[in-house]
Every structure is written in C-alpha cells, then in structure tokens.
Amino acid sequence: MRAMRIEGVPASAGYAEGPLFDLDRPPAVYAGKATATEEKTSLEAAIGTAVSRLAAMAEAADSDAAGILEFHIAMLEDDALSGPAFASIASGQTADVAWREALDAEIGGYEASDQDYFRARATDLRDIRDQVLRALTEDGDSTAPTGAILCGEDIAPTRFLETDWSHGGGIALKAGSTASHVAMLARSRGVPMVVGLREPLADLAGMALLDAEHGSIVLAPSPAEIGAFRQSSASFVARQGVVRRFLARPAVTKAGTAVRVQVNIADPSDVDGIDIATCDGVGLMRTEFLFGKNLPDEETQYRAYRKVLEWAGEKPVTIRTVDAGGDKPVPGFTVEEGNPFLGLRGIRLSLARLDIFRVQIRALLRASPHGNLRVMFPMIAMADEYERAAALFGEEQAVLAARGVAQKMPPLGIMVEVPSVAIAPEAFAGVAFFSIGSNDLTQYVMAAARDNAAVAHLNSVRHPAVLRLIGSVTAFGRENGIPVSLCGDAGGDPAAIPSLLEAGLRDLSVAPAQLAMAKAAISDVSV
C-alpha cells in the first residue's frame, strides 16, 4: 500500500504513532439459546453487565465523564428502551437480534430528527446498543492494543474511558466534532484526536501517523515521512515543556499589559490538582455536577461551594447557578423539548422551578462568607430575568438572617451568551459583572450547532460578527465600570487568544489543563 495522507480537523493537539484499530468492526457472533426464557435471561444478564461496567467507570471518572455515564445507565435501566427487545424475544427472536433491532429502530428515529440535540443523542444510543452486544458475546477482541490509533465513523464516550491511554495512542474520526463529549475528554487527558476526516479510511491495517496539531493522518508512511513526523512530534513536546514554564508566572502581553487568567471547574475535586498560585481564581464553577441522579439538598451544595471558596482564599470564585437543559438533561428537573437549546434551560428553568432554585440560592448565600464569591446567571436574555433572580437572592437572604444563619450577599452578574444581551448590554447596566460564554454565543450568532461536525467550520469565535459583539460588550463594560471576562472554550485556545485580546478582553477563564498554554499565548501577543 502506498502512503496516503488524509486531512481533518484537530480536536485535541498532539502526535500519535501506532497500529490502526477499527472502531466499527462487528462484534463477535452470539451463540443462540435453546428457549425464549433463556434468551430473555441472557439479555437481562447482558444489560446488567453493561450497567455494572458503566457504574465502575463512573466511579473512577471525573464529574464530566461520570455525568455522561450516569445518563447511559439511566437509559439502560429504563424499561421503555428494553421492552421492545423482550417482546421480540417472546416472539421467537434471539437476544442479540432482538436488542439490535430494537435499538436500531430507536436510533433511526433520533437520526431522522431535524433537531441537533436528538441527532446527538443517537450517539449515546449506539454506545448503549454496543455495550450490551459486547456483553452478550463477551467479545474479548474489542479491546484496542496499547498505543493504537482508534479509527472509525465516531467514538463513544465509554470506549474512550475504558481505553488505556497511558502508553500513547490517538483517535481519528470520519465524523465527530471538536465540541463533542469525547473531544473535551481527549483535551483534558492530552489524547491526540482528529475529526472530520475528508476521506474514508478504507484499509485499517498496519501503522499510521496521527498529527493532531495540524489535523491529518498518514497511512502506510514511508521511512522519510516517519522521520519528519518524529521531528514534529519532538518539537511539539519541547514546546509543551517551554509552555509549562509560564504556569507559575503572571500572564502579561509583549507590551506589558496584564491579563487575568482564571480556571473553569466542574467539580469541587477539580481544585485538588491545581495550585491556586498559578491562576487568578475561578472564572466559572459549573454546578450541574451536583444535579446527577438526584436533586441535591441545601447542605450538599453548601459543602461543595464552601470547599472551593476556602481553597481560593481571597481570589474570586464565580459560581454559575445550575445551567441544566440543552445538552445537559437532569432527571426530575429538565423537560424534553423539540429544540432544547432554544427552550427551557438555564435561568429560564430555574425561574420556572423555584422550589429547586431557592435551595441553591440559600446554599450560595451561606457559603459566601467563606471566600470571595461571585454568582452569575446563565442564559439571560431579558433584564426582567436578572431582576427576578436577584430579588430571590434578597428574599432568601432575609429568611436566613431572620433565622440567625450566617450568610452574605455576593455580587450578582450574568452570562453573556444570548445575542440579545450582547447587542443591547445597556439593559443590564445594573449587574455586577459580565461573563461572556463564547460557546453558546458563537452557536447562536452563527446558527451552527457546536456539536455538529457538518457545520463545524461555521462555529468559530473568530468570525467578525462574534468578535464585534465581544468587543462591544467589553467596551460597554469598560465605559460603565462593569468587569467583563470570558469563560468559554475560546479563552484557552491559543489561536483565538490574540483576537480576544484585540477585542478588549483582559480576563479569561480556561480549563486547568490549558492554563500554561493560555499564558504562553498571551505572552506572544503585542496588545
């Protein structure tokens, strides 16, 4: 086979050299049972095995990954999903065929939807389907060899999480998205990943070279190509070493302009691996991690918030009220909608469920005396939403004070992620601060779903329309004494940082793994 280079889109920077592994290979053949009762028992056992495997992975995973796995477990335990398969078994079908046909029918319905949200859920269903099929066949050959480059149409989060990445390896996908769950997991773990390959990987045999810094894979490489690849890989590692030296330094541009760099966290345990001296505080603490299988009580939330505030000391911690909905369903809280990204999510959902929102407000007020807390509301579109939320804080503060409970009112700000706010920020002149959510803002401005590979080229924070809005919000904040920061993925993207600083931003919040890289990128900007 002659050497072949296929271009794609970098999703997680890095280099990998290793054998190809076909993610789409069919599972081993299932051995049918003698009776329908045995087939039913076989499928029940396989579902139980899949649930146990997912639960074990969830226990060892971080909050983001655990949330994905718990969603899969909940679907597997839903009788509505498995019912049609058991009905087929009762009619004489084998367990594997019954399960595959039932799930494929469900997957087909999701894929046919005109809503990106439901099409994205098809990936979850395929993962669930394959987990059970593997349990049915006990397919031991499904494990990729150490250091392999996993190739295929797409990859399930569970396949990523059960792969041992400690000895290298990478991912190359025909579909996929830079904003997918797996892409975020890959970036946090430093696993090289390329998505949107422009040609199919016809022959998945032999060694390959994955360049996830620039976005390509080379099949059947020549000795010269291997040599050039290893030089590029070594250069990348060396640059990463240089970048790490910026971690302990303040972020400053070439011209000496200081830039605050804070971190985004999703779970209180995230701060255990971060030296507070390396960052300027927490620019975004997500609270969805608390809203998993059960709605959290006030004490659970209070302890979680207090832990992070005490870790940060005098440095600010910006906690976002629960941003459920959209691509973050929460059992017992969110609702199923035809277009959830434009539906009852974020502050809209909180204001619709005051019984849940008031619990979170009280926990935040009680935690506030333990550090430098700031609270922000997600998905604000109208000034009335902010005013209602702020009034609820006032009401709950009065209740706590009357009971003699220690509390403190934190500064209240908003996420700028809905275009109506970015276009007319003057309606929000009374807020304490703005935090630009670049992921959703870009998605809404460009009308391009952030998790859809087919329109990934449109979803760029560097588009002039998006940057113009960011610049106008930053200018409004500067003119009116309202601090402005950015907490979306763009803040940690070295390619986007120069444009963000040119737009006037001087406060970025990034994933902990991107701290050093962001500081290094800032030092290279002339602003």
UniProtKB/TrEMBL annotation:
Its main location: cytoplasm. This is Phosphoenolpyruvate-protein phosphotransferase. Mg(2+) binds at E417, D440. It catalyses: L-histidyl-[protein] + phosphoenolpyruvate = N(pros)-phospho-L-histidyl-[protein] + pyruvate. Gene3D superfamilies: Phosphoenolpyruvate-binding domains, Phosphohistidine domain, PtsI, HPr-binding domain. One of its GO terms (molecular function) is metal ion binding. Keywords: Cytoplasm, Kinase, Magnesium, Metal-binding, Phosphotransferase system, Sugar transport, Transferase, Transport. SUPFAM superfamilies: Enzyme I of the PEP:sugar phosphotransferase system HPr-binding (sub)domain, Phosphoenolpyruvate/pyruvate domain, Phosphohistidine domain. It is found in: Cytoplasm. Residues 245-525 form the PEP-utilising enzyme C-terminal domain. Its cofactor is Mg(2+). Phosphoenolpyruvate binds at R286, R320, N439, D440, R450. Its EC number is 2.7.3.9. Residues 7-121 form the Phosphotransferase system enzyme I N-terminal domain. It comes from Mesorhizobium jarvisii. It comes from the Bacteria.
